[in-house]
């Protein structure tokens, strides 16, 4: 069955690849929906090229020349990403779980702190086997829907070095993010910044902590759906996140550009609908902030390369079993991890899967999964907000 799945994918990509390869010059700055002076424009160009390379790899066709908008370092990183994506796509692992029914069984904002409830879910949706993933692969549910992309060794050394330097420059913000006090089941979210889950870094330049970064952060209780209203007074109240209101905000955004671009290029392959919705959202936001003279937000958006409007930077944290209750089943979270460590493991207990979670890995998953990641250095994570 898995072989038929791969053959069907390859045949569908044949025509797709042909249309791209006949017009390699179409990757022009003028044909993308964002303004040419926005960093997101280069992201869209790079993402389109990764999509072409991915199709060529899967269809067994010649690779498409890189667009001139990409510098050599980013071209190499994007080429590596496309190759690993294609390898993963051609190695599906099918599970018996139905992701839609599983999510329907969860209660709103369920965070996995009730052991009895977890035993009930495992009894209702038992993993048919236990497995350990350490090679590129996709995990599909019983309805042949991809619920997990696993891409080890996706980030090359140069990209990891840039991410390390960026994280080391966030020391003050990371340090002030740590919280103390007693955790309780009534406040499950506090584990993410509680000091008991963080460990000292062997590298002196790294500071343990967890911060959120966003050029247009929604205030709690003020999330809105649909297009932005004409006037801010109508209740549309995004703000630049506190972490980007500091003096070093400009350099912080610039330091995150390459990771943001690469994760966005992956998103275009893994979830094209979410990619297109995200780019449309940012175009709408850009028009709104320009009209309403939100200068600081406009400057951040102008330099923001990620299709996601929020990213979490997590350094030296060991996560307890948990779910992300704000992650909708139709969305995808992306995680990347770097650092000088070995034998990192992420456990997805509801799927019966353990994953080698070592430096340079990229993962994207759709299920509100229970996971534990043991890693000893920086782990920048991007997720939709």
Tell me what you see in this structure.
The protein has 385 residues and is α+β, with helices and mostly antiparallel strands. The protein has eleven helices and 14 strands. It has helices at residues 2-21, 39-59, 72-89, 99-105, 115-124, 157-168, 171-175, 249-255, 257-270, 272-291, 295-303; strands at residues 92-94, 131-133, 137-140, 146-151, 209-213, 217-218, 238-239, 311-315, 333-337, 345-348, 353-356, 361-365, 371-373, 378-382. An eight-stranded mixed sheet has the order 1-3-4-12-9-14-8-5. A four-stranded mixed sheet has the order 2-11-10-13, with no helix packed on it. A two-stranded antiparallel ribbon has the order 6-7. Strand 10 and strand 11 form a beta hairpin. Helix 9 (257-270) crosses helix 10 (272-291).
Spatial sequence of strands, sheet with the most strands: 1-3-4-12-9-14-8-5
Sheet with most strands:
8 strands, mixed
The average pLDDT value, as a whole number, equals 79
Rg to the nearest angstrom? 21 Å
**Contiguous runs where pLDDT drops below 50 for at least 5 residues:** 20-31, 369-385
Total strands = 14
Task: Report the structural category.
Answer: alpha+beta
Question: What's the gist of this structure?
Answer:
The chain has 385 residues and is α+β, with helices and mostly antiparallel strands. 37% of the residues lie in helices and 15% in strands.
């Amino acid at each position: 069955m898995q072989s038929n799945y791969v053959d069907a994918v390859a045949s569908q990509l044949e025509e797709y690849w042909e249309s791209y390869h006949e017009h390699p010059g179409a990757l022009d700055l003028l044909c993308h929906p964002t303004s040419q002076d926005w960093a997101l424009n280069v992201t869209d160009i790079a993402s389109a090229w990764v999509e072409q390379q991915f199709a060529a790899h899967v269809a067994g066709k010649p690779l498409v020349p890189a667009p001139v908008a990409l510098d050599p370092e980013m071209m190499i990183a994007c080429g590596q990403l496309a190759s690993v994506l294609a390898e993963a796509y051609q190695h599906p692992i099918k599970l018996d779980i139905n992701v839609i029914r599983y999510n329907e069984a969860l209660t709103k904002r369920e965070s996995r702190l009730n052991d009895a409830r977890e035993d009930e879910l495992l009894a209702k949706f038992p993993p048919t086997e236990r497995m350990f993933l350490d090679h590129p692969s996709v995990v599909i549910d019983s309805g042949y829907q991809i619920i997990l992309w696993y891409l080890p060794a996706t980030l090359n050394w140069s990209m990891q070095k840039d991410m390390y330097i960026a994280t080391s420059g966030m020391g003050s913000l990371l340090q002030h993010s740590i919280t103390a006090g007693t955790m309780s089941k009534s406040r499950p979210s506090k584990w993410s910044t509680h000091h008991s889950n963080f460990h000292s870094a062997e590298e002196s330049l790294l500071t343990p902590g967890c911060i959120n970064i966003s050029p247009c952060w929604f205030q709690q209780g003020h999330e809105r759906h649909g297009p932005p209203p004409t006037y801010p007074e109508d209740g549309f109240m995004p703000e630049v996140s506190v972490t980007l209101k500091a003096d070093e905000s400009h350099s912080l955004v610039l330091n995150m550009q390459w990771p943001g671009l690469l994760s966005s290029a992956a998103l275009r392959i893994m979830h094209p609908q979410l990619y297109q919705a995200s780019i449309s959202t940012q175009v709408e936001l850009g028009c709104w902030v320009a009209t309403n003279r939100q200068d600081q937000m406009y400057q951040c958006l102008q330099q923001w390369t990620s299709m996601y409007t929020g990213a979490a930077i997590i350094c030296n944290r060991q996560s307890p079993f948990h779910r992300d209750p704000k992650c909708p089943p139709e969305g995808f979270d992306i995680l990347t991890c770097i650092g000088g460590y070995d034998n990192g493991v992420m456990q997805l207990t509801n799927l019966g899967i353990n994953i080698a979670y070592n430096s340079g890995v990229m993962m994207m998953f759709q299920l509100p999964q229970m996971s534990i990641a043991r890693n000893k250095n920086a782990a920048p994570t991007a997720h939709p907000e």
